[in-house]
Write a structure and sequence with these properties.
By secondary structure, the protein is mostly helical. The protein has one domain. It is built from 18 helices and no strands. It has helices at about 1-15, 25-55, 60-85, 85-95, 100-125, 130, 140-150, 155-170, 175-200, 205-225, 230-240, 245-275, 280-315, 320-350, 350-355, 360-395, 400-425, 425-464.
């Protein structure tokens, strides 16, 4: 079934992507996707750097970063999904040339981001009871709690940055975001080194370094947004527009299903990580490394997905449903090619990839074994995230949320848990493969239904 779905997607890609009218859209999407991919890699790179530096510090530090991340990310992921809805809303206003509405969207988005950050700070700073349920030793509990406390100081700048980022991506300013996110990496490295190795603050030092990086990202992107000449018509309206509760309601209505859907997906990975944490430091460290590598490669189709959302949303705003449909399939084709390369790399060079993180023999063996499973799910992961991005461009978010529930929690986790009773960590990874394959199948079917519906509307309008 999974192979059949990939086959159907490939047929649709050929149908919509390789005809002559598709070439300009392919070129433009590629132009948008490359900086979007680098932005995703740079943002993920902070976690990558934290993991590498933690691994070279000691195994306990690496375990703390793994545990802390598996608690921190699910807490904020729903709100990340809410902010993702800003992308297609912004591109739709841009398509209709509505600078005043764009100004109101910007102001309302920032107000919403600041407001949502406040309760999340409280939650992140009070996760110690949850950490204690994992049955860890006292030192890991204390260090994990300190790491999360340090991260909590960066939540307001992080949420503001996310709102600014998706707003700018909806207006196709992906290059600026790329340069800003890449410039944050040396800042993160410098403060990681200072706090972890020089001042000996332990894992909390990594948290404070991340907070400083988030603050830089927020400030730099805010300055760009307010000063960029291409936004001059929008900025002129900022002083005259007010925060709109109607727009905030629209962001939440469109974005909350996205956030819940992302939460269902990310929580599967987080809960899996927490179960694996009970198998011992060596296995949890190997799992963290393998998952970090898989997450890094996932950032490529994720970047393509974000660019696809913006372009599909733009043509959806112009009622050009044929081009919107075509862009979705073009993006899926790009992701498939990239993830084929990723899968082959993990399959043939697992030891080389793992040695970037650690030289501990036991940890290398565990991580290399898990990368075998990561190689299998690469194609499904690339398809599902890009098709999902195209569906967001069509403002279709509720049904995909239910599909995520089915794929990750009714199929992936129960089967993964059952298999873990025999195969331990590998069993959970088999469950992840089934979850992503199911998501790819369901999202592809949904995209076919939604795009066909709008193409039918377009055909009816032409006939009339």
């Amino acid at each position: 079934m999974g192979i059949y779905t990939v086959y159907c997607v490939l047929i649709s890609i050929v149908k919509y992507s390789f005809m002559k009218p598709a070439r300009p859209q392919f070129n433009y999407l590629l132009k948008l996707s490359i900086p979007a991919v680098f932005s995703q890699l740079a943002q993920m790179g902070m976690g990558f750097i934290d993991t590498i530096m933690a691994g070279h510090h000691n195994r306990d530090t690496l375990a703390v970063v793994s545990i802390g991340s598996n608690l921190f990310i699910p807490v904020i992921i729903v709100f990340l999904g809410i902010f993702l809805s800003i992308n297609p809303l912004a591109s739709g206003h841009a398509a209709r040339n509505e600078p005043k509405e764009l100004a109101q969207l910007l102001k309302s988005s920032l107000a919403l981001a600041f407001t949502l950050a406040i309760p999340i700070i409280y939650i992140v700073r009070n996760l110690e009871p949850v950490i204690r349920l994992l049955g860890l030793n006292a030192n890991l509990i204390v260090e994990s709690d300190a790491y999360l406390d340090a991260l909590s100081y960066g939540l307001i700048p992080l949420f503001l940055f996310l709102a600014l980022r998706f707003y700018n991506e909806g207006l196709f300013s992906t290059r600026a975001i790329m340069f800003i996110t890449l410039s944050a990496l040396p800042i993160n490295i410098a403060f990681n080194y200072l706090f972890l190795f020089k001042l000996n603050w332990g894992p909390a030092g990594l948290g404070f370094a991340t907070t400083i990086s988030y603050s830089f990202l927020c400030l730099a992107l805010l300055i760009f947004t307010l000063k960029y000449r291409g936004y001059s018509a929008v900025i002129r309206h900022l002083s005259e527009v007010k925060i709109s509760f109607e727009i905030i309601k629209k962001i939440i209505q469109l974005g909350l299903p996205i956030g819940i859907g992302l939460g269902l997906e990310i929580t599967l990975f987080a809960v899996t990580g927490l179960f694996i944490a009970t198998y011992g430091v060596e296995i949890v460290a190997g799992h963290q490394i393998a998952m970090n590598i898989a997450s890094m490669t996932f950032m490529i189709p994720m970047g393509i997905s974000i660019a696809t959302t913006a372009r599909v949303g733009y043509f959806f705003g112009k009622n050009d449903y044929l081009t919107a449909t075509r862009v979705g399939y073009i993006g899926s084709g790009m992701s498939l090619v990239v993830m084929m390369v990723s899968a082959l790399t993990m399959w043939f060079f697992p030891d080389m990839l793992v040695h970037l993180y650690t030289t501990d023999v036991g940890t290398v063996q565990v991580a290399a074994q898990l990368l075998f499973y990561a190689a299998i799910f690469q194609l499904f992961d690339g398809v599902q995230v890009t098709v999902l991005g195209a569906l967001r461009g069509f403002h279709d978010t509720k049904i995909p949320m239910y599909f995520n529930l089915i794929a990750y929690w009714l199929i992936g986790f129960p089967i993964g848990y059952y298999l873990s009773l025999t195969y331990k960590a590998a069993g959970f990874w088999m469950g992840i493969i089934l979850a992503l394959m199911s998501a790819a199948i369901l999202m592809s079917i949904r995209y076919g239904v939604v795009s066909h519906r709008f193409l039918s509307i377009s055909s009816t309008q032409v006939e009339q």
